[in-house]
Amino acid sequence: MKLGQRLSVSVLLLLCVTWGANGGNILVWYTEGSHWINIKPVLKTLIDRGHQVTVLVPSTSLFMDTSEPSCFGYEPFNVTVTKENMEDFINDFIHFFIYEMDHMSYLQMYIRYMDVLRVQVQYTLNYLDGVLKSETIMKKLNEGKYDLLLADPIFPGSDLVAEILGIPLVFTLRYSVANKWERHCGQLPQPPSFVPGAISKLTDKMDFSQRVWNFLFYAVQDIVQECFFWTKLDKYYSEVKGTPTSACAMMGRADIWLMRTYWDFEFPRPFLPNFKFVGGIHCRPPKPLPKNMEEFVQSSGDAGIVVFTLGSLLKNITTEKGNMIASALAQIPQKVLWKYSGEKPATLGANTRIYNWIPQNDLLGHPKTRAFITHGGTNGIYEAIYHGVPMVGIPMFADQPDNMVRIKAKGAAVTVAFNSMKTEDLKDAINAVINEKSYKENAMWLSSIHHDRPMSARDEAVFWIEYTMRNKGAKHLRVQAHELTWYQYHSLDVLALLLIIILFILLLFIKTCTFCFSMCCGRKGKTKRKAE
Amino acid sequence: MKLGQRLSVSVLLLLCVTWGANGGNILVWYTEGSHWINIKPVLKTLIDRGHQVTVLVPSTSLFMDTSEPSCFGYEPFNVTVTKENMEDFINDFIHFFIYEMDHMSYLQMYIRYMDVLRVQVQYTLNYLDGVLKSETIMKKLNEGKYDLLLADPIFPGSDLVAEILGIPLVFTLRYSVANKWERHCGQLPQPPSFVPGAISKLTDKMDFSQRVWNFLFYAVQDIVQECFFWTKLDKYYSEVKGTPTSACAMMGRADIWLMRTYWDFEFPRPFLPNFKFVGGIHCRPPKPLPKNMEEFVQSSGDAGIVVFTLGSLLKNITTEKGNMIASALAQIPQKVLWKYSGEKPATLGANTRIYNWIPQNDLLGHPKTRAFITHGGTNGIYEAIYHGVPMVGIPMFADQPDNMVRIKAKGAAVTVAFNSMKTEDLKDAINAVINEKSYKENAMWLSSIHHDRPMSARDEAVFWIEYTMRNKGAKHLRVQAHELTWYQYHSLDVLALLLIIILFILLLFIKTCTFCFSMCCGRKGKTKRKAE
């Protein structure tokens, strides 16, 4: 171990001893990619506040580095899926979204999506096996005497483990496709008429055809997920519990759902007392830039800089695309800092520098920053909102296109299509968000909404995690809807009864009228006959 | 003016000069009774924070004393209704609920209720005339350059005035009957299957018959209120605006709804980003009691004391009822402090003292307090929750029975019926809540929920009022549902289209089958005929 490393470990250990006797003991479910990036600052804050944090880490983890000096305790476990399997899955997933989807019919898209879902479930269950079917791990978790399980449900199973360990559960979640998990498992009310399903690319202002589309999106997703995801999970849960168990109902047992959005990004929508909107938990004021970088930034003069990244998952793009992008960047008066680990494009301008890594938050918080070119990941968008930077979106997959639709609808971004964009499109988009005042004004307005709340996102997330530990759960914030069937929830049984009663009364009325009429006519007939 | 009064005015003026240049200018809509008691502490906090507060006060006000030294500015206005009219209306209202309702059929009750509604609307419009049709008042309000109108919508019309003055509007509201205003005008989602309508006396755990009841309660209330309240208000609004105007839609323009409940009292339910739950805004730590009272309280020894009040509206009860209550109180080991301004009962025990006024919050916060006998008003209940005191409810009218159902369901109260209770019932109820541990434990649990939140109720109310001023409204927290019709909201048009498509496909399928079948049969027939 080098001296610097040893020193930083000592400082960390010094910080770690603040784990007080009153601190809680928190178990963190495994996660990956930007989800891990997002949860880390919360864990650090929890440690600073005297809690003990232990993170479950699968042997295939791509983003969690257990060898890195850290205040977290790690609980590694083995999974049968290899690191290569995971990388292949992610690359296949990205390829599908970026290169295949545009040339597919809806049916082809859904068939391909079902394949993705099938692999996802298979890996999910493999990961779960690594925890649940390992006696050593389960013994350790039982002996760990944890006060709470904190989980991003993107890797399902945490609810089952929390139930087995008998501890409260707090979810931290960005979204599920069409919000199926939140709607059905969390009982979050979500009328399709004004709440666009996650990744639907719709806004809350929908015309008739869009409302039909959103309605169908919910319905199709519900069916597909039910068939290809939940039935398999139900079977697994039932086997583990030894009794028929609904994985969705188990998910609904979560005490608190920390949703990683807020009204700066999300369209206003109904929610529940145990849903807390903590978008931007990872944002923080900027730190000074590395010296070289600061010099480059300062050299931009009044024109300022543009920050450009396509996220942590996309490592490379085609040479042609690289040249096209570089050529657009070369034509703007700003200096550009581009996070890119692929081949250096031949058309790279003197105003553009390529970096393997950039301090994204610090750059976005720099007074010289004029725009952010982003793939539209929630983490980056939130950093731009936090610092009030207008955006150019080049969304590609997952929630990225949907995210950019939101920021565009709020007037703080222009979007260009990754596959079809030309040099001119990108250049015009950058010039627009920098030179047309409204984009900056709207970005500042979103920033103001973000900052102007009773407590910061991270503090609120930490508050509700500690709250759940203090109160050994938060079941009093859970709606009674969890105990109702879908037809009870929508009062369909009540409506059926009322309809039957109305029909019965109507029938009785008609029968009585017919009877009276026939009696009258009969009597008249009789009278007539008598008169005859 | 006496010296003491002069001194207190000076102190108040000294406090008032803290109105900074940055403070907002807030107009407060007129209100009455416990609603005024509830809003006052928020106004005082706003003044302490440097804002200017002006309260509209009708000439008939029963609870707002403009001659009292105060930091508020008052804007008095004349109404044609007399003080006697108002008192008669309130007494008639109380009489109906306490003495008449028990002997009425549902139909009679509704006919009587419609009468009450009719008078309420008439008085509402008279009050509104006092503001809107007075040129002097409207000129003053216009010249006042207010930043915000804060209103309890129990007296409607504030939304119309806010619209005319062109200023943001914040509501502070306990409830409307069956939550019609919140549901229809505020777009608060409220499935009848698990959200009991306000004053329905139901909990969130409903069996089938209760769900039918709740559904019908919503429906009947919607119809009655539509016919006897909203149509008249719509007519008035349309006349004033000179264009067809929906009073309910106007109400829906409110920026923030401060709901005066929280999850310590309310059953968990869906809500919206512009609905903030601030139950208990008036609660505060106890102050020392007056010397004589403290001596009496201390004389109770270990047995402790019981605090008893039937609220601010009910001044008197029958001699018989008074004796019955006094007799029950005489039989308990605790000392009793009874707020009562009627005739002294003959059976009054030595342990009971009658007061014209009691410092209710300070008594409930006293360590010797064992129980609170209450009519079930929200203000009193919240003080008891704040201090963790178990309750005996003697609810009478308005939301009181419903309030007590909630506290009883949460295990912190026993309820006795005002009309039918006997000495034994009251005595047993008091003994139960004092001697059975669970009541105190549950009261303490509610108190813990009340206190354990990110910020206090009053601070949260003040935050959102200031927020609305700072941001000149909070329209970005308003759901898009406001722009939809009821059938669009419930996607009924979408369902109709999908149904038509399904029917069309079905019909096409049947027709095709029939055609194919007839072709096949026809050909067979032809072949047969040819063979013949």
What does the model show?
The structure is a homodimer of 532-residue chains. The first copy, chain A, is of the alpha/beta class and 532 residues long. The first copy, chain A, has three domains: 3-282 and 455-483, Glycogen Phosphorylase B (Rossmann fold, 3-Layer(aba) Sandwich), CATH 3.40.50; 291-451, Glycogen Phosphorylase B (Rossmann fold, 3-Layer(aba) Sandwich), CATH 3.40.50.2000; 487-516. Chain A is 50% helix and 11% strand. Chain A has 19 helices and 13 strands. A seven-stranded parallel β-sheet of chain A has the order 3-2-1-4-5-6-7, with helices on both faces. Chain A has a six-stranded parallel β-sheet with strand order 10-9-8-11-12-13, with helices on both faces. In chain A, helix 13 links the parallel strand 11 and strand 12 (391-393). In chain A, helix 3 (83-100) packs antiparallel against helix 4 and helix 4 packs parallel to helix 8. Chain A is globular and about 105 Å long. Mean pLDDT of chain A is 90; it is low at 1-21. The interface between A and B is large, with 48 and 49 residues. Chains A, B: This is UDP-glucuronosyltransferase. Chains A, B: GO terms for molecular function: glucuronosyltransferase activity.
Instruction: Give the helix level of chain A as a range of percent.
Output: 40-55%
CATH superfamily of the largest domain in chain A: Glycogen Phosphorylase B
Number of folding domains of chain A? 3
Give the rounded overall mean pLDDT of chain A: 90
Using only C-alpha atoms, the radius of gyration of chain A works out to 28 Å
Please state the second-level CATH architecture of the largest domain in chain A.
3-Layer(aba) Sandwich
Tertiary shape of chain A: globular
Distance between the termini of chain A: 125 Å
**CATH fold name of the largest domain in chain A, please?**
Rossmann fold
- Multimeric state: homodimer
Count of DSSP E strands of chain A? 13
Top-tier CATH class of the largest domain in chain A: Alpha Beta
Largest interface: A-B, 48 and 49 residues
Class per helix and strand makeup of chain A = alpha/beta
Q: Give the low-pLDDT segments of chain A.
A: 1-21
Strand order of the largest sheet of chain A: 3-2-1-4-5-6-7
Report the β-strand fraction of chain A as a percent range: 5-15%
**What can be said about the biggest beta sheet of chain A?**
7 strands, parallel
> What is the count of helical runs of chain A?
19
InterPro entries (chains A, B): UDP-glycosyltransferase (IPR050271), UDP_glucos_trans (IPR002213), UDP_glycos_trans_CS (IPR035595)
Keywords (chains A, B): Glycosyltransferase, Membrane, Signal, Transferase, Transmembrane, Transmembrane helix
Subcellular location (chains A, B): Membrane
EC number (chains A, B): 2.4.1.17
